[in-house]
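Page 42, continued from yesterday. The earlier attempt failed because a stray header line got pasted into the input along with the sequence. Redoing it now with the clean sequence only.
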Amino acid sequence: MSTDNLRKWRDKNLNSISPSFCAAKWYNVSLHLGHGFKNSCHLPLPHPIDAEKLKDRPQELHNTDFSKRQRKMMLEGTRPAECSYCWKIEDIGRDNIGDRVYKSKIYKEEDIAKIKELGADVDIIPKTIEASFDRTCNFACSYCNAGYSTTWGKDIDKFGPYQKFKSVSAGAYQNNGSWADANGKYNDQNPYVEAFLKWWPDLIEGGLEEIRITGGEPCASPNFWSFLEKMKGYPSDKLRLAVNSNLGGNFKRIQRLIDASYELPIKEFDLYTSNEAYGPHADYIRDGLIYDEWRSHMVAFLEGVNKDIFRSLTVMMTINSLCLFSIDEFLDDMIVLKRKYGPNRPNVDFNILRWPAFMSPLALPTDVKRFLHKKLSNWFETRKQDEDFYQLFSEGEIAQIERLIDYIEVVKTGHVTTEGEDEIQFHDFKSFYEQYDKRRGKDFCKTFPELAVWYQGIDVDQTISDVPMKSGEITHFEDGVYNSNNTQ
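This time it went through. Structure tokens are written below.
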């Protein structure tokens, strides 16, 4: 569907109900079962689920009082503040497509139309669920934190909290994530997992269409494999299982997932993995990842999975400032795979990072952003000339590329709670990566030489007013080309 057609679809199915309407508030839920939080999609911040109410009402996992208030606001045409990402995209001024369109469009038009009749207070059986059972993970990606990765937790336990920050973004890097373990509060039983398993038969009977398991790293979690055994007892010719895996580490886990695809009584199976940069850049950003290993595991999965139920593989791209230096090379590599295995093997999905604010693609000097914008724009204009470009990339993928190009150029602040001037974000950028390098055995300036002069000029011990990082200082980024000979 073209961008124009997406706009027409939005106006017909969403804006006709209200200009702030999104069907995901009703039909989608992300469940953080490890510690009992939920959100309607991955963009709003999670909010807590009342464990006491779950004893008699497992549907409370999705139908909290908070969620019902947000639904009411949408039906009335009020923009919920927690959905600021979509509003920021739509307010760019070029009639851009917000994520509420993509997240609603997966549902049937007649089901979306029913929402107006259902209202805000009724308990809903979701059609799509994303669930994580715990934070077990073998990676410790730079923009993740201990609340979602046990490996991150070990980093904090070993080296202590990250220090020297000027913004509240540091909060995620100053605890070991033990707060995310419900078992710490409930002894050996997790009421959220128990409620979810109790709710499962009703979900299948009520028409659940997709269950997507994330983490942590699901393949490293015993809870994930136990859930797959549970699934075998409830066959469904409507259900799609989607699994988020970083595809890293021990290949035996990947093989076990391949084998499971031949045993589950479901309609379809999707795999989601994550990456957004190429080679050493990817290895730096996603600590634990080895690019060549990740790619070979992805190929092994594509070639070994049960083709009778396998539908697609999607690479979830978390668009941060550092990935922009090789995102074009990464996309070229994905084109190689698309040409060999098919346009949706892999798909690419662009998710723009907003938090922590100092890792946002917007948290770079103006000259650098101009350079990166031009670099990606040049890649896009060149690739559009390829004979098979429009066969390899869906209209949705193309719209997301165009949106990212606009985002880098137009949007000034990534998150509604982003605080302070650029200098504050620059300070925290340097402070974080200095400590990250020491803890993880990495070298920022060697990996990103384009930023070395700017990076080395930041003194995290100076007061903010002393940090010399005003726009226009960097002069060696011109016309989308980095001229290393101009560095000093």
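Notes: The domain at 3-360 is CATH 3.20.20 (TIM Barrel).
Reminder to self: strip header lines before submitting.
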